[in-house]
Design brief:
The complex is a heterodimer. By secondary structure, chain A is mainly alpha-helical. In chain A, about 75% of the residues lie in helices and about 0% in strands. Chain A folds into two domains: about 50 residues, no CATH class; about 210 residues, Orthogonal Bundle (MetI-like fold). Chain A is globular and about 75 Å long. Chain B has a domain of about 170 residues: Orthogonal Bundle (MetI-like fold). Chain B has 13 helices and no strands. In chain B, about 40% of the residues are buried. Classes of the chains: A mainly alpha, B mainly alpha. The interface between A and B is large, with 90 and 90 residues.
């Protein structure tokens, strides 16, 4: 392809990708009269923070933000605590024949299970134990989402560490747990961090289970709060855009940290980018 | 030794089983119960007679196929474009990836702002350039809603295809292409005979991952149209959700989700088998 054409196509693609994001940002900063002016105001408007103030002072978005943080953090930590030993077992301990592979594939298949398949029974189960409208229900469900991911990602990171290193530690009298904590984890630390960030993003973005399992501000997360600004009578565009802007910032900040592992994270460790 | 390897994996397995296999078995029980709470096969006979379900299955297949083909094509195209760039490669790549990282709810909100027929930025911009926008109803028109919803998916998820294919391209060794160029091969032939075959495993993986994700589509459609207008954008996920949580018919919703499980499993197995065959 010619150099000029390459940059023209690249520029068009970039415009299509980013213009909608820019538009959200401007709507969240515009006074109501400016939001839907015709012709649209792309640059020349007087910015205001009233929607952000409304969302967090008048509406409950502070609480939603807090719930989102709690749910994402707790589910990530638990998924790592359960997933890392499992990944270690599958990639380092001896399994008869191809058992480890079979278990690995079963774990992976959980990842591909569409949530709509388990949503009815999980809702009924949570209702019967009185966990509806509680962040705990969401934490449990998100651990289930993220666990297969953690196990697969951590397997690829652990396999990259030469076996001799942890074997040597065990010859020197260290236990398996000691070898995991003193040898494997420090060497796989960037991998653990990247895996954790992916888990945080997945839990942060999740919508369907949060929609079903939360009902009031006691447990509603940011995505549900944003969706609830579309009411029967009106759509609160300003608040919705302001909250949307707040919801996307942490994701972008976090993904800067995992740039290097983005491909690996999105392909469950199948492609090393 | 045996005890150790099982002990280490046991907690994770217990959690996974109680969040996937147990709920599925629970679903099975619920699906054989009618709304009065009695044992019944009515939920399964209803599956065959339910026109709404059939429409939503067909529309899901349509959605998945169209979005997948376009996202694959565009992803490949932009991966090649960016790959042949010298300066600015990383800047362009980072910019491209932004939509994919957003919470899907935020992506849907953005497109509601854009599509609104009366005061959305899309129609306002078109009006500014002198187009008649009266009939451009986007997500609120029965004829255009499906296409509009798919366009949002393309915006959001082409970056995913782009990213995986870019990584695949970078892994291709430079020598064969250079040798072919020395021998006077056109760039089209180099692409067809060298790059594409080497890229095949990546392409199949990208298709598999994206297809599985597309099948579960819910968030964006729920925010954009709730399946409407009429039935224009109804998909299986939305229909099951509505049956369970709007009409509170858990039994029927459970039987449909089990049907869904069977269809998805068969689909994934076939796709996976096809991949293995073609790649090998």
């Amino acid at each position: 392809m010619k150099k000029g054409a390459v940059y023209i196509f690249g520029g068009l693609g970039l415009l299509f990708s980013l213009a909608p994001l820019y538009w959200l940002l401007t709507i969240s900063l515009k006074k109501e009269v400016d939001q839907f002016a015709s012709p649209p105001l792309w640059i020349h408007f007087t910015p205001t923070f009233e929607h952000f103030i409304n969302a967090f002072e008048v509406k409950q978005f502070g609480k939603y933000l807090f719930n989102s943080c709690i749910v994402a953090t707790a589910s990530t930590i638990m998924a790592l605590l359960l997933g890392i030993p499992a990944a270690y077992s599958l990639s380092r301990l001896k399994w008869p024949r191809n058992q480890a592979e079979k278990i690995g594939f079963w774990i992976l298949s959980n990842r591909f299970l569409p949530p709509i398949i388990t949503i009815v029974p999980l809702f009924l189960m949570m209702r019967s134990v009185g966990l509806l409208d509680s962040p705990i229900a969401l934490i449990i469900v998100y651990v289930g989402f993220n666990l297969p991911f953690v196990i697969w990602m951590m397997q690829t990171f652990i396999r990259e560490i030469p076996t001799e290193l942890d074997e040597a530690a065990r010859v020197d009298g260290d236990s398996y747990l000691g070898a995991l904590i003193r040898i494997i984890l420090p060497l796989a630390a960037p991998g653990v961090a990247a895996t954790a960030i992916f888990c945080l993003i997945i839990a942060w973005n999740e919508f369907l289970f949060a929609l079903v399992l939360t009902q009031t501000e006691a447990s509603m997360t940011l995505p549900i709060g944003i969706a609830s600004q579309v009411t029967q009578y009106e759509i609160r565009w300003g608040i919705m855009s302001a909250a949307g802007t707040v919801a996307m910032i942490p994701v972008f900040v976090f993904s800067l940290f995992v740039q290097k592992y983005l491909v690996r994270g999105l392909s469950m460790g199948a492609v090393k980018g | 030794m045996a005890r150790r390897r099982i002990l280490w994996i046991l907690p994770a397995m217990v959690v996974l089983v109680s969040l996937s296999i147990y709920p599925i078995l629970f679903s099975l029980k619920v699906s054989f119960t009618n709304q009065q709470g009695d044992w019944s096969l009515s939920n399964y006979s209803r599956i065959f007679a339910d026109h709404l379900l059939h429409v939503s299955i067909i529309q899901t297949i349509l959605y998945v196929t169209v979005a997948l083909v376009i996202e694959l094509g565009l992803g490949l195209f932009f991966a090649l474009v960016i790959d042949s760039m010298g300066r600015g490669k990383y800047f362009f790549r980072a910019g491209f990836l932004a939509p994919m990282l957003l919470p899907p709810v935020v992506a849907a909100v953005i497109w509601r702002l854009i599509y609104n027929p009366e005061f959305g930025v899309l129609n306002n911009t078109l009006k500014f350039f002198g187009f008649a926008t009266k009939n451009l109803t986007w997500t609120s028109g029965e004829g255009s809603a499906m296409a509009s919803v798919i366009l949002v998916d393309i915006w959001e998820w082409t970056p995913f295809m782009f990213l995986l294919i870019s990584a695949g391209l970078q892994a291709i060794p430079g020598e064969p292409c250079e040798a072919a160029k020395m021998d006077g091969a056109s760039s089209l032939r180099i692409f067809k005979d060298i790059i594409l075959p080497l890229l095949k495993p990546t392409l199949f993986l990208a298709i598999l991952l994206r297809a599985m994700d597309l099948l579960r589509i819910f968030d964006q459609i729920w925010i954009l149209t709730q399946g409407g207008p009429g039935l224009a954008t109804e998909t299986v996920s939305l229909y099951i959700y509505r049956t369970a949580f709007r009409f509170f018919n858990f039994g029927y919703a459970a039987s449909m989700s089990l049907l869904c499980l069977i269809l998805v499993t068969v689909f994934a197995k076939n796709l996976f088998g096809m991949m293995k065959m073609k790649v090998a």
